[in-house]
Specification:
This protein has 86 residues and is mainly α. The chain has 3 helices and 2 strands. A two-stranded antiparallel sheet has the order 1-2. The longest helix has 15 residues, at 17-31. The N and C termini lie far apart (34 Å).
Length: 86
């Protein structure tokens, strides 16, 4: 399911907002907005940018983590791609 990286969240649509946000973030990663190993915007920034609850943003990020598109470091942020090997 390809999504326009510039899409807005449709709160009345059939797809849940967290799934919509996950699709938008996935599309922005594919477009190259954030390079491999670089951070995506903070949860707070995404909350403001998309007008969503923090829990919704966290759930969207969790979807991308499960897919392996991003990885997180508590207190540091969420990064594109796979975590570096220790």
């Amino acid at each position: 399911m390809a999504t326009d990286p510039n899409a807005e969240i449709d709160h009345e649509g059939p797809v849940t907002p967290y799934r919509q946000l996950a699709e938008i973030l996935r599309a922005r990663i594919a477009r190259g907005d954030w390079a491999e190993g670089r951070p995506i915007p903070s949860e707070n920034r995404l909350v403001q940018e998309y007008g969503l609850a923090r829990s919704t943003v966290r759930r969207a990020i969790a979807v991308l983590v499960e897919e392996g598109a991003v990885w997180t470091v508590q207190g540091r942020g969420t990064y594109v791609g796979q975590p570096p090997e220790a």
